[in-house]
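I'd like us to work through together how a protein chain folds, taking it slowly. To get us started, please write out a protein record for me. Label the sequence line and the structure token line clearly, so we can match residues to local backbone shapes. Once you have written the record down, we can walk along the chain together.
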Amino acid sequence: MKAVYDPSSDTLTLELKPGPVAESDEDKPGIILDYDAAGDLVGIEILDASRRVTETRSMQFQVAG
């Protein structure tokens, strides 16, 4: 998994699985879900991220269990 914040476009991209995106749907305004050819969710794009995410320049990751 990879997270990238682009300050020039104020976009936060979460890449869940590498590979080509076959289809994208805007689930809610400013939230774009990317799918591969098999229909699996492979990424999430958050537009206007600085308005929607508390801290765009840092991230915590935790594995539960």
The longest strand covers residues 23-28. The chain has one domain: 2-52.
